[in-house]
Amino acid sequence: MSLINRQIHLVSRPQGEATVDNFQLVELPVPALESLAEGQVVVRHHFLSLDPYMRGRMNDSRSYADPQPLHAVMLGGTVGEVLHSKHPKFAPGDAVLGMGGWQEYSVVDANQRGALHKLDTTHIPMSAYLGAVGMPGVTAWYGLVKIIAPKAGETVVVSAASGAVGGVVGQLAKVRGCRVVGIAGGADKCRYVVDELGFDACVDYKAHTDPKSLYQALKAVTPQGVDGYFENVGGAILDAVMLRMNAFSRMAMCGMIAGYDGQPTPMSNPALILINRMKVEGFIVSEHPEVWADATQELGTLVATGRLKFKESVAQGIATAPEAFLGLLKGKNFGKQLVKLI
Ligand SMILES: NC(=O)c1ccc[n+]([C@@H]2O[C@H](COP(=O)([O-])OP(=O)(O)OC[C@H]3O[C@@H](n4cnc5c(N)ncnc54)[C@H](OP(=O)(O)O)[C@@H]3O)[C@@H](O)[C@H]2O)c1
Prior knowledge:
By secondary structure, this protein is α/β, with parallel strands linked by helices. The protein has helices spanning about 55-60, 135-150, 165-175, 185-195, 210-220, 235-240, 270-275, 290-305, 320-330; strands at about 5-10, 25-30, 40-50, 70-75, 80-85, 95-100, 105-110, 115-120, 155-160, 180-185, 200-205, 225-230, 245-255, 280, 310-315, 335-340.
């Protein structure tokens, strides 16, 4: 009897907020070894990564990435094990990272450069290759090291601080001797950021719903102003941090999640970029493969030695992926959002 591969397809584009009706569960047989072409590998996914960028790809609009095609498997990063292989470099049981998408199994042409990476899971759990030692970790590393380039003693602020990217940004900045302040939604997330991740302070933006109050809370924990800001959110949070930026400060523009599931969020006072002679640089991590080796070397060493901590929100089973993804866009996740598939 052949194995069944359950997949999630995008079947319609959101009008405003995304909903579970934009997705559909589809079942197909998993190809047997005999039916594979030379170079093909079947991967059984253990974890699927859910990431904010996926929301942008659901729209049919101009962006840095092509739209997700309709009636096709949602694209996404996966880790798992080789089930069948017709490629000499991959054997059944090998742990691998790929872009297998929202499904339980994928057929990969392993001859395609970068399609499948073997993983060493001796000291690093497989799931971390989708988080702290994977794309989100390298994103944190690039924005902090290459754009903010902080010096010891400087103050670095990061929004979505308890998340996959934000948590790593703060810990890497602490390693570099900075004062680190997080911004996160809720007392639990703030406590975690300070007590577990070692940030110096954290502002709960949900406890400060008017701009003045948010600014005052941020001012209290950034007495020397802000030298580096790692932006993940946009909107009211960006406006508040802008008022604390120092002369010649740097901002890594990584994400603007507050505007992904609806209207883009305007910036209230862009003149501050000029007044403070700021450097503001947007970046897309996939366009910087040149840093991958250096970044994963540092991230992998820190994780393997317990000096870089991370948290995961794990949904169980492929059918839960749409709901878990919509939750991520509303801050229901606490740490890296994954779907466990076995
Ligand atoms: N440029 C790149 O190459 C690149 C690569 C990866 C990720 N990113 C960006 O990095 C950011 C963080 O990604 P991640 O994977 O680490 O996700 P994450 O932080 O693990 O999860 C998203 C978090 O964003 C916050 N959030 C969600 N909706 C919000 C809203 N409306 N207003 C304020 N905060 C909201 C929530 O935290 P709170 O509960 O604390 O609000 C939520 O937990 C995203 O903007 C993403 O697009 C960019």
